[in-house]
Specification:
alpha/beta; 5-stranded parallel sheet; 36% helix; binds zinc ion
């Protein structure tokens, strides 16, 4: 006897087959036991099985739970004031140089209590979960000192324990150079490499290490030092690359077999080729492109031509992407970047799982995978990339439980 059986539904397994890129099973059924999928197929194949709960879904669509593979969800305060400055003509660089930007959130984050950080992050997390998210990556990066970075990672762990969502913590170790280290760049990077990475690795607080490779942030040489330290401590790497300029960060990330390179508006062909060869996922972040009113789009056709997998994420953060809706991220990926609705859905399911190194756990609706599922009352799945401001799924199952 299974725990749950979903019937009378159309299942997008996300296991691509020729002519069926989303792995759709019409008149499908999904069996769930102990939080995992035990069987998926056409209804008649599963007809002999019984379950304690049977959900007859009236023809609704079932997809994997959405995966938001790039967020900065935990921070103090917000930056609505900078939004107003940008509307008055200031650029991202202007704001950063004037002590705003990341530095302002760092101040507010350091001043916030742990309870305050958790309460505000839980509100944002709740919005993502209502939108259909069952796995969310959360980066640190607003502490910019050993203990305050570890505190953010501990907050991520606390959220994972209290909320019905899988949280994947990332140590964003090189995010911005703090004001008081401006004359001591090398010393700051040394502190991160020699103290923060070993401490986070030893405490098991991070799955991967990230950095912001950019003219206003860290150089490729500094990032490479970080990556080597991460590898020494058994941590995977990923990178904010080619957002505002081409620093050849994507190629550097690929050289270190990064899980993902993210943003990529200024990616060149050599970078795309290197990513394809390394299996590094391109994480596209249309919320930041939209909020910054950028004009240069990531080279989506080049990524397709080289066979680079594309993921889509909210990049939820207080400065450049205060985006709380995964389905709006999908819509923006279509409307702003030219992804097809199928690509956008793959970008928040199978490819996002790969961007987190979690393909064994959550990349598809298949036996053995976690029973993280969304039930959508839609005519077609193309609607996920079509509606602007779609409410969340009708049902959201996390580890088999109806949440
Ligand atoms: Zn980011």
């Amino acid at each position: 006897m299974w725990d749950r059986l979903l019937v009378d539904c159309r299942v997008a397994t996300m296991e691509a087959a020729p002519g069926n890129p989303l792995g759709v099973i019409e008149d499908g059924a999904v069996g769930i036991q102990d939080g995992r999928i035990v069987r998926v197929g056409v209804r008649t194949e599963l007809a002999g099985n019984r379950a304690r709960d049977v959900f007859a879904l009236g023809g609704a669509w079932v997809t994997p739970g959405l995966i938001d593979c790039h967020t900065h969800l935990i921070f103090g305060g917000n930056r609505a004031d900078e939004h107003a400055m940008r509307q008055a003509g200031a650029s991202y660089e202007d704001i950063a140089k004037a002590g705003g930007g990341i530095a302002s959130t760092v101040r507010q984050t350091r001043e916030a209590s742990e309870a305050g950080l958790l309460a505000s992050a839980a509100m944002r997390l709740d919005a993502l979960m209502k939108g259909g998210v069952t796995t969310v990556e959360i980066k640190s990066g607003y502490g910019l000192a050993v203990e305050s970075e570890l505190r953010l990672l501990r907050c991520a762990k606390a959220l994972a324990a209290s909320e019905a969502v899988r949280i994947v913590p990332t140590l964003l170790a090189l995010h911005a150079l703090p004001e008081d280290w401006k004359e001591r760049r090398i010393g700051y990077v040394s502190m991160i490499v020699d103290e923060l990475i070993p401490a986070a690795a030893e405490a098991g607080l991070a799955d991967a290490v990230d950095a912001f490779c950019e003219g206003i942030a860290f150089t490729p040489e500094e990032v490479e030092r970080l990556f080597e330290a991460a590898e020494d401590h058994g941590l995977r790497v990923k990178l904010h690359a080619e957002q505002l300029s081409n620093q050849h960060g994507a190629a550097l990330a690929a050289k270190h077999r990064a899980l993902s390179a993210d943003h990529l508006e200024h990616l060149d062909e050599a970078g795309a080729k290197a990513m394809a060869e390394a299996g590094t996922v391109a994480v596209l972040l249309p919320g930041a492109f939209y909020a910054l009113q950028e004009e240069r789009k990531p080279p989506v056709q080049m990524l397709r031509d080289h066979g680079v997998r594309m993921a889509v994420a909210t990049d939820c953060n207080p400065g450049t992407s205060p985006l709380l809706s995964p389905t709006l991220a999908m819509n923006m990926a279509c409307t702003l970047f030219g992804l097809t609705p199928d690509e956008a859905l793959a970008g928040m399911t199978v490819n996002a799982a790969k961007a987190l190194g979690l393909e064994d756990e959550i990349e598809a609706i298949a036996p053995g995978k976690a029973a993280d599922l969304c039930v959508w009352r839609l005519e077609s799945l193309a609607e996920l990339g079509y509606w602007i401001g779609l409410p969340g799924p009708e049902r959201r199952l996390y580890a088999g439980d109806d949440t």
